[in-house]
Give the backbone structure.
Amino acid sequence: CLALIGAGPVAVAHLRHTLGLRDWQQVHVWSPGLASNAARRAQLEALDPRVAIQTSRAACVADADVVMLCTSSGTPVLELQELTRPALVTSISTNAPQAHEVDPAALAGMDVYCDYRRTTPGTAGEMVLAAQHHGWSAASVVGDLADLAHDRSPRPDGRRHVFFRSVGLGLEDVAMAHALYAHRPQPTL
């Protein structure tokens, strides 16, 4: 099951992309504002027949294998105890100072990955707060996008929750631009 918390434009874009990555049996979506926004509910449901709008966060994440947090919240939007099995939780979060979509104290009990290990732990709100108040360390990051892409970090083993934190779409844009630049055809002289 794929679960999406959030319903704004970035959430919709992430959902569109993720729908085709796996043969999801169920796709649950929840956001506090969806109950009063019939147009947005219809837009989300029109994306795919598997999309089901949920009436609570707990219902949304029950039995989820992947939970995408795509909100503008600066405070936690997910309670890990609502997850009924180990899940991959992704967070793109907002640019609010020290924004964190999961409780910083929870990081110690998760396998933590990020987009770029040299900068994300010093800028991602939950990582900064976990280091300041909960004894978490940036050395606990299992891997980043480069590590994963080049098989330099262990893959999650499914025994505990996995948290992937991105500090923003800009980094992915830079990585993609660099990859395209590196693989461009060389001019012939």
